[in-house]
Amino acid sequence: MNILNALPKNHSSTLWFLWVSSGLSFESIALYYQYVLDFPPCVVCIHVRILLASGLMLSLMGFFFRGHRAARSMVLVLMLANYSVLIERSWELLGTERGFIMGSCSFDIGLPKWFALDQWFPLIFRVHSTCGYTPEMAFGISMAEALFVSFCLMFSVILGLLYREFHGIKNSRC
Question: What is the pTM of this model?
Answer without folding.
Answer: 0.84
